[in-house]
Amino acid sequence: MIQQDTICAIEWLEDGLRLLDQRVLPRNEASILIRDVAGVADAIREMVVRGAPAIGITAAYGVVLAARSRYAESPEHWKELLEGDLQLLFAARPTAINLAWALDRMRSRARGVEGDPGQVLAAEACAIHEEDIRVNRHMGALGADELGSGVSILTHCNTGSLATGGYGTALGVIRSARQAGKLERVYADETRPWLQGARLTAWELERDGIPVTLLVDGAAASLMQQGQVQWVIVGADRIAGNGDVANKIGTYSLAVAARYHGVKFMVVAPTSTVDMSLDNGGRIPIECRPADEVLNLAGVPVAAEGADAWNPVFDITPAGLIDVIVTERGVVKQPDPARMADMMSSRSFGF
Ligand code: MRU
């Protein structure tokens, strides 16, 4: 039996939060222990932890640390004081809606607490974490059902255990397809500039004994032209009400190339990634990170001195280029506003 998931990126301890430092993987498997909310916000901003669901889960634990400290500071006014901490966490990264989703859920739980909030909020954050793993396993099965046998898949960025509570979204479908005996080969884009594909996806798949072939981002269209893949499967940072998807920069070009070459395109994300308040993807804020991330590689300057760089880290894939969106509430084919609304109003599995 294949071991499905051997990685624990986020671990709640009684005295703090332990995060696997994703900036230094795969060379170093180092963790950092964080004991306060400012440290949690820094870890999200600085990419110690990344991936939309993982950011949300981490922020939820950050709220526990903040609430404990605010309650110690003022048992009468901790709820008002906590608002500033929620804002700090909210501002850490703008595109992944899972961050705001998790903070809203923690805020609602905090509102109802009488007395010391520590245990109640820790239980809520753990519930968010555990639900994410269950949701991912369910989406893995739903997504794998959509695939034929002997399928080769191209994926982008990292959407696995490192990017979620565990198992993964797009990588969860790949894990499930492998278990169902449907998987021929996985190709992973290296995913410039942070190399989430080369460093993180390849590391996760190798640990699970799933062979992976890396390619530079610019090789993806040629791979499709040669008929080497039948599906592109990716995650999402935010999905608008019409099915437009914000995901790691380069996703949009994959979707354009996939449509041109007749390759199917699947997006896998929990409903905590869906933002029905936005009627199209053009309204999703896109994070732009420092030019240094493009001008340097692993800390070494590689660009000509004096060059500037444009570094948007997400892009928008229009719904019209997406064949299937998989969430824990079901599969949306040819997404549009009505189908998205239908899916969102259907009963969530198991909760
Ligand atoms: O900048 P990152 O590494 O946080 O970007 C991550 C992605 O774009 C993922 O595809 C997305 O968050 C889905 S992870 C399940």
Question: Helices and strands in order, then pairings?
Answer:
Layout: E1 10-13, E2 16-20, E3 31-34, H1 37-45, H2 52-73, H3 78-90, H4 97-111, H5 118-145, E4 151-155, H6 170-179, E5 183-189, H7 196-207, E6 212-215, H8 220-225, E7 231-234, E8 238-240, E9 245-248, H9 251-261, E10 264-268, E11 274-275, H10 292-295, E12 296-297, E13 300-301, E14 314-317, E15 324-327, E16 330-333, H11 337-345
Parallel strand pairs: 4-5, 4-7, 5-6, 7-10, 8-11, 10-15
Antiparallel strand pairs: 1-2, 2-3, 8-9, 9-14, 12-13, 15-16
Helix pairs in contact: 1-2, 1-3, 2-3, 2-4, 2-5, 3-4, 4-5, 5-6
Notes on the protein architecture:
- The structure is a single chain.
- The chain has 351 residues and is α/β, with parallel strands linked by helices.
- The protein folds into two domains: 10-134, Four Helix Bundle (Hemerythrin (Met), subunit A); 140-345, Rossmann fold, CATH 3.40.50.10470.
- Helices cover 40% and strands 18% of the residues.
- It contains eleven helices and 16 strands.
- The strands form four sheets. A seven-stranded mixed sheet has the order 6-5-4-7-10-15-16, with helices on both faces. Strands 11-8-9-14 form a four-stranded mixed sheet, covered by helices on one side.
- A hairpin with a 2-residue loop joins β15 (324-327) and β16 (330-333).
- The two termini are 29 Å apart.
- The mean pLDDT is 96.
- Bound molecules: 5-S-methyl-1-O-phosphono-5-thio-D-ribulose.
- 5-S-methyl-1-O-phosphono-5-thio-D-ribulose is lined by residues 50-53, 96, 157, 159, 163-164, 169, 196, 235-237, 247-248, 313.
- The site of 5-S-methyl-1-O-phosphono-5-thio-D-ribulose has 17 residues, from α2 and β9.
